[in-house]
From TrEMBL:
InterPro entries: ACP_syn_III_C, ACP_syn_III_N, FabH, Thiolase-like. The lineage of its organism: Bacteria, Bacillati, Actinomycetota, Actinomycetes, Pseudonocardiales. This is Beta-ketoacyl-[acyl-carrier-protein] synthase III. HAMAP family: FabH. GO terms for biological process: fatty acid biosynthetic process; secondary metabolite biosynthetic process. Its EC number is 2.3.1.180. Residues 265-269 are annotated as: ACP-binding.
Length: 346
């Protein structure tokens, strides 16, 4: 299948998926060896058994290139018009990582930019790609969610070190029509900046650099993620439920017609609480947090690729996507799963 077809249309249609996780794994037992926690606590409170983490020198762009390459192969193409990289753990504050991803994938001098919306980044990326395609700015977009976020997590903080993992997922979107399989439905998005401090990295940006930066009494912990877990949990359940309902309503889908709910893998208890509120049976919920942890913007494309390659998502399935993250930010959308070529299971 080529994504450079001349069939321009209003919809962004899924043409390929791919994912990559770094080879190094960290189990709950590994973490329990140096943190005041236990494998039982981590599994029962989060659903996570292990996560993949980058090795020294390995970065979000490295992961993005691997996932992007697989998505291009899945789409059967070597070219796209634009590259969007959703990440909260950029290689550098400047420049954006997307141009390097495009370069390393041999995509040439295409427009490429980063998008930051934490764990909702993939949903904001889908809406962005949809707009680029609908406005005929691009006929095809490579959208990658890639995170080496464990590099921003304090390894000594048991409240956050047990949750996050690294990885990347990517999709190729092409211009098409709204009624064909793979067409991304209306994307429902929202943010609430009044809760920005619930999940944040205080230093590294302009506020701390100008006021209390290095050499001015900066506490090193402010370079790491700080998270109000319990409050976020409640917000995540409420907002993911709201985003899901809104996306279903905009698509005109009764909830009973959803075959697969692929939500942001933040915490198994969050996912099951959202599914319960939506009255989606537990067996329709896709779960891979046990193997990868919370991978922020990579979470949903990683889950989609894992579900499709593992046979848990097949052509014709009606899929609901929903995410929540720092910002606060949230989003949801729908699609009918198309007939795609996928890699062997991760
Ligand atoms: N091991 C053992 N105990 C731990 C622990 C760990 N790794 N982390 C926290 N605790 C302790 C706390 O200190 C607290 O102890 P206390 O009762 O003596 O004060 C107790 O466990 C309960 O803490 P709480 O934060 O209420 O636990 P929880 O059941 O809410 O689970 C999270 C904590 C972080 C797993 C959960 O709140 C969560 O997943 N929140 C959402 C996080 C998230 O999704 N972030 C990204 C947004 S996309």
């Amino acid at each position: 299948m080529t994504v450079r077809q001349k069939n321009r249309g209003a919809a962004a249609v899924l043409a390929g998926v791919g994912a990559y996780v770094p080879p190094k794994t960290v189990t709950n037992a590994d973490l329990s060896a140096h943190l005041d926690t236990s494998p039982d606590w981590i599994t029962s409170r989060t659903g996570i058994e292990e996560r993949h983490v980058v090795s020294a020198g390995e970065s979000s762009v490295d992961l993005a290139v691997e996932a992007g390459n697989r998505a291009l192969k899945s789409a059967g193409t070597g070219t796209v018009d634009m590259v969007v990289l959703a990440t909260t753990s950029p290689d550098r504050l400047c420049p954006a990582g997307a141009p390097e991803v495009a370069h390393r994938l041999g995509l040439g001098i295409v427009p490429a930019f980063d998008l930051t919306s934490a764990c909702s980044g993939f949903l904001f990326g889908l809406a962005t790609a949809q707009g680029l395609i609908a406005s005929e700015t691009a006929e095809s977009v490579l959208l990658v969610g890639a995170e080496a976020f464990t590099t921003f997590v304090d390894p000594a903080d048991r409240g956050t070190a047990v949750i996050f993992g690294d990885g990347a997922g990517a999709v190729v979107l092409r211009a098409g029509s709204t009624d064909e399989p793979g067409a991304i439905g209306p994307v429902s998005l929202g943010t609430d900046g009044s809760h920005a401090d619930l999940l944040h990295i205080p230093s590294g940006g302009s506020r701390q650099r100008s006021a209390t930066g290095l050499g001015h009494g900066l506490d090193v912990s402010s370079w790491y993620l700080q998270m109000a877990g319990r409050t976020l949990f409640q917000q995540a359940v409420a907002r993911m439920t709201e985003a899901s309902r809104s996306a279903l309503e905009q698509a005109g889908w009764p909830v009973a017609t959803v075959d697969r709910f692929v939500g942001h893998q933040a915490n198994l208890r969050i996912l099951t609480a959202v599914a319960k509120r939506l009255e989606i049976p537990a067996e329709r919920l896709f779960v891979n947090i046990d193997r990868v942890g919370n991978t922020l913007a990579a979470s949903i494309p990683l889950a989609l690729t894992a579900a499709a390659s593992g046979g848990e998502l097949t052509s014709g399935d009606r899929v609901l996507l929903s995410a929540f993250g720092a910002g606060l930010s949230w989003g949801g959308t729908t699609l009918v799963w198309p007939d795609l070529v996928t890699d062997a299971p991760l």
